[in-house]
Amino acid sequence: MSQRIALATYSVKPRGGVVHTLELAEALKAQGADVTVIAMGDPEVGFFRPVDVPVIIIPAPEWGETLDERVFRWIDALTNGIDAVHDRFDIVHSQDCISARAAARVRDAGADFRVIRTVHHVDDFTTQALIDCQIAAIKEPDEVLVVSELWRRQLLEDYGVAATVVTNGVNMDRFSGAISPERRRELRGSIGAEGSFLFLSVGGIEPRKGSEFLVEALGKIKAEFGETAIRLAVVGGHSFQDYRAYRERVLGSLKDHDLAIDEDLILLGTVSNDALSEWFQAADAFVFPSLKEGWGLVILEAMSARLPVVTSDIAVFHEFLKHDENAVMTTTGDAELLAAGMSRLVEDPDLASRLADVGPKVAARFSWEETARQHLAIYS
Q1: Is 1 exposed, middle or buried (0-12, 13-18, 19+ CB in 10 A)?
Q2: Predicted pLDDT at 1
Q3: What is the model's pLDDT at position 190?
Q4: Residue 261 falls within a domain, yes or no?
C-alpha cells in the first residue's frame, strides 16, 4: 500500500512556498504518489491556479490586527482542519512554520502520521512569541528539509537541526512559451513601456526583496538614460506579514529619486499564473535584489523565459548563479552597484543576449521530476 501524503501550506496565494507546494504535489502525482494538498483560504475561491491533485482548503479565520494574532489564529484553524482528516494520511509535509506547528500538534495529540517540514528560510520576527513559535516549527518535525546548502548550514549552526537539502525545481514549460508580438506590444503598451527597456521584478514592495535599493537604482538609471528610456514593473504584493509602513516609505521616496508611480514604476499587484508567464515574455530583463531568500525559484522561472537576470550576491544565489557567466550579480544592499548592473543590460545587447541564451540551460538543471524523486526517497 502506497504512503498517503499531505502537503500542507498556509495560503492559496502565489507566494514562493505555495508555488513550491503545488509544483511538488503535481510532480509527486505524476510519479504515482497518493498526494493531497491542504491549505488555508477560501474554499469557494481555491488556489491562484488550477491544481491537478486533490485539495482540502480549510476556511481562513478572521484577519487579525497584529502578525502575532494572525499567526496563532491560522495555527489554531489549521490544527483543527488537519485533525479532522488526520487518519487519511501517513505523512504530513509542511512548507511553513504555521502548518508545521499545526501538524505537530495533531501528531502529538495521537495522530499516526509523520511530520516533515521544508524550511525555505527563517523569518526575522521581532516578538518573542513568534520567535519561539518559529524555533518550535524547526525543531518539532520528525524530518527537516531545506532547499539550499546555505540553509542546511544555518539550521545546524543556529538550531542544532540536521536537515536534508532538496532543491526547488522549475516548470520550464510554464514559462518558456513565447507570446505573439501583438500580445507583447499590448502588454507593454498597457503600462506605457512601448519604447522603453522594461525591467520586471517579482515579490512586491518588501524589505526582504530589497525594494528600497531597487527604487533608488531605478532613479539612478533614469538619470543616466533619460525620461522614458527605462520602466520597472513589479508583480506581487500579497503577504501574510504587514509591510504597509515599509511600502509607504519606499513609495514615498519616489519623488526624491525623480520617479513617478505608474510612469517609471508600475505596480502590477498579484497576477494570475498565466499573466505572470506573459509578463516574463513581455519584459526585457529581470531584476531581483533580495536581501534574503531560501533559494530564488523566481530567478529560474525568469531564466526559463530567456530573460537576462540582475540579482544581489547573497550566498544562496551563488549555489546556482555565477557572475557574468549566467547572471549579473551585484553587491547586496548597494543601490549604486545595482544601478550599474542594470545599466549593463541596457547598454550591452550582446551581454543581454548571451545571458538570455544561457538561462534555460541553468533552469534545466532543476526539474520538479527530480525533486519529486528525492522527496519520495525521503518519504520511504
Answers
A1: exposed
A2: 54
A3: 97
A4: yes
